[in-house]
Amino acid sequence: MTPLSEQNPEALHATLGDLQSRYAELQARGLKLDMTRGKPAPDQLDLSDDLLTMPGNRDHFTESREDARNYGGVQGLAELRTLFSGVLGAPPAQIVAGNNSSLALMHDCLAYALLKGVPGGARPWSREETVRFLCPVPGYDRHFALCETYGIEMLSVPMTPDGPDMAVVEDLVRDPSVKGMWCVPQYSNPGGETYSDDTVRRLAAMEAGAPDFRLFWDNAYALHHLTERRPHLVNVLEAAAEAGHPDRPFVFASTSKVTLAGAGVAFLAGSPDTIRWYLGCAGKRSIGPDKLNQLRHARFLRDEAGLLRLMDGHRQRLAPKFTAVTRILDRDLGGTGAARWTDPEGGYFILLETPEGCASRVVELAAGCGLAMTPAGATHPYGRDPHDRILRLAPSYPSLAEVEAAAEVIALCTLIAATEARLRG
Ligand code: PMP
Q1: 266 within ligand 1 shell (Cβ under 6 A)
Q2: Residue 425: which residues within 8 A CB-CB, separation 6 or more?
Q3: What is the residue range of 241's domain?
Q4: Model confidence band, residue 56 (pLDDT cutoffs 50, 70, 90)
Q5: pLDDT tens-place string over residues 157-184
Q6: Are 285 and 190 found together in one domain?
Q7: What's the CA-to-centroid distance between 235 and ligand 1, angstroms?
């Protein structure tokens, strides 16, 4: 197809007519597809089926002869903390193994900071006039939702291929009302970027206006590679300690996309003071986590090699879906100038960038063809993409055939929206 920018209005009208008849054909197929969220597919969950019969009859003693059926052990099983020590980049003593959701741990750290304050702070965050968080954009909607629900003001920071734009971050963070920053440092949601060494070191070392500033370091995709390549990510806890800010990072991860999304284990890692602080707060909230789930995870994964083997299985199932999307977008949108998209090396998302003002129209058109997409704007604080341009594609859950059909729908809807936009001028 001739690039849209080279078509005169007459040609654009003809193109639109052509695209609309293809749209009617797609509508007639009666598709019912869902690409809204980054959920693992059933065949990925099947990889962890053995968990359903573990730890097994009468197997309920931990390595330290604790009875996992009983109360207690708020820090979580030592053997599981040891198993994830390499992934989290912290010694087992500086790790908490909790229940199934790292988002819940992020919520709790935020809530405790608001209600009680964090080490090094003068008062609970909720006693401040205004609390602000830096939000690399595009970003993860549930991070933004946490801020919104607790009245934390969000300041957008543009993403670059190396992570958040550090000149902007270093400028904004001098404001003492900036208490935190969301970071998805590897295969970020949704752009897929991994923070460069320089970015991580600067985040760890920068002068913050608030003495109790925290990095909410959500390493949700630490193990989630889509290729043979492995990115390098600087250990933020070490970098922060070296820079004299040992308590700055709250490091989060979970097995939601390793074992079972609804029944995995989540982790928090931090400095010794951070862990003491967290356990002091968490010990009031609960007498201890689900240690039987932790025990069966330790039995099932065995060691780090077992963990990496399992991730290979995920990659084998996921990578073809990502390849299918980029292949179809290349085929149908390549050279048209109607969009740009990422070809991520890991994580769960492809980012599609449409011309200004087109993203919500693409979602509307896709819905008309039976495809549910993540709403436009979800990747921005307050759900508002000021340019209405960014879309997040989540190819993990549908089958490969469904993903291919969905990619065709997305490509066509993007072309229609972009052609309409050019005709509007
Ligand atoms: N962080 C990021 C960046 C995510 O993309 C997701 C899931 N989509 C989560 C956290 C949720 O993690 P969990 O299941 O451990 O709560």
Answers
A1: yes
A2: none
A3: 61-302
A4: confident
A5: 999 999 999 999 999 999 999 999 999 9
A6: yes
A7: 20
